[in-house]
Design a protein that fits this description.
This protein is mainly alpha-helical. It has one domain. It has 4 helices and 2 strands; from the N terminus they run H-H-E-H-E-H.
Length: 82
């Protein structure tokens, strides 16, 4: 593992934390924001599914419910190309 980019591989191995701890901390942070959370990503279909699974696996919930916004779709709408 990490043969293609050894510097990146080394960087992600520093200060590793348990997924239970990280996902609970992330969930608490999202829930502490002042507005209704919306998951924003590109591609939202993949990233949202990935994070949603991790949230449910390690916290039993998702503060995003089923709300997601795909950045490429937003850009296309805002530029009138969508």
């Amino acid at each position: 593992m990490g043969e293609g980019n050894p510097d990146a591989w080394a960087a992600i191995r520093v200060n590793r934390r348990d997924p239970d701890e990280v996902m609970q901390s992330f969930c608490t942070w999202v829930e502490g924001q002042p507005d209704i959370p919306v998951f924003v990503a590109y591609p939202a279909g993949f990233d949202c599914t990935f994070v949603y699974w991790y949230l449910h696996r390690f916290t039993g919930e998702s503060p995003f419910s089923h709300s997601a916004l795909d950045m490429k779709t937003l850009a296309m709408v805002l530029t009138g190309r969508g």
